[in-house]
Amino acid sequence: MAKQIVRYSTEDQENQENKKGLHRSWSRLPPELLCLVSSYLLAGDFTTFRVICKSWRSSTSLPRPAVSTLTDSPWSQSPCLMSVGSHKCTFVHPAYQKHDACEIDIPELLDARIRFSKYGWLLLTGFGPDNFSVFFFNPFTKEKVELPNYTERESFVTMSFSSPPTSSDCFVIGICGWWDDFGFIKRGEKRWTSHTIIKRPEFTPSSYCNPILHKGLCYCLGENGGLGVFDPNDNPSNWIIYHNDKIPLIQEKLDSVHRSYLVESDEGKLLAIFMVEEGDTKTPIHVFELPKLQVNKTMMKPRKIVCRIVRSLGNRILYISLGGSFLEPVVPRGLGNKIYLPIIRDKKNIYYSLRTGKYHSIFDDYSTKNLHNVEEPINCCWIQGGLKLTLNKDFEW
């Protein structure tokens, strides 16, 4: 869009000069009008808009038009960072600054904890030691799907689901405590099935990384960078352990791993992302592509997998957060190869570039290998609006 505006402005300027001998530059448009135009631009076009000229760039620092509802937002179909506070829910697009965020009252979420996000739906649990409620919620349609309460001795810490709650094959899994128990439930069931996880000495699942449900199996990233796979419907002692052959490259830094994420790629493979705390000034974020696994449930000894170090995402962007991570293609060429983080600095969202190996902001010249003076919203996740389907009034989980 921004590129078209530039082309049209150039043509208009040439026509005016030929006809009247006048010079009318689009750089002199009122800042309020420029601000209105930029508010409808997404990440790629917004970046192009800012580099056109000084006046266009300065207009992006003005307050954006107020948004009364999430569906009124010009970026309702684009990934945004959602956080649930004590009074309001906040939605921030990477091309917006924090003070331009869309704040909405969603009473259903104010006493809930985000556990997972996918397909435009949130999976949440009640907040509090005696609140075992579990439910889906679509912030774009305000639809809620309640699941049976989970009443075991501990509440869920990490969770995941396989498909939208409207799907007949929707499957939900939750891990309790420090990986002592897990529970799962399928669409149509009225109670949770729970199991005690049989721990394996050679594998400790990461307590801060969501499991991934893929083709009927549960994949968990380990604290040592390995991968654990098990069938939730089978004996949970039958862990299948895979060691990452590339992990020695960051083995000496594993004690400083700040966060780890497991993400499904658009090719049916899994990506393992390790975010290292400051001190690893060479590569702050490591990305590996795990191969397609030949899972044999009779395998009890750990196996080695050959992982590929991902040095470029191509024309794709990774959005990572504790509550939900996904890989998205971008339409404008040359704007991919970035990892957007749930991190805010000076009211601006921060991303990591695999090309430069540094953290950046699209609003200024911020560039660093070590993050300082940043904040991560509590109870947040990346979310993207999906198909706005209306639930039948007789819908039952």
Automatic annotation (TrEMBL):
Residues 1-22 are annotated as: Disordered. It comes from the Eukaryota. It holds the Pfam family Beta-prop_KIB1-4. Residues 26-60 form the F-box domain. Residues 99-346 form the KIB1-4 beta-propeller domain. Gene3D superfamilies: 1.20.1280.50. This is F-box domain-containing protein. It comes from Lithocarpus litseifolius.
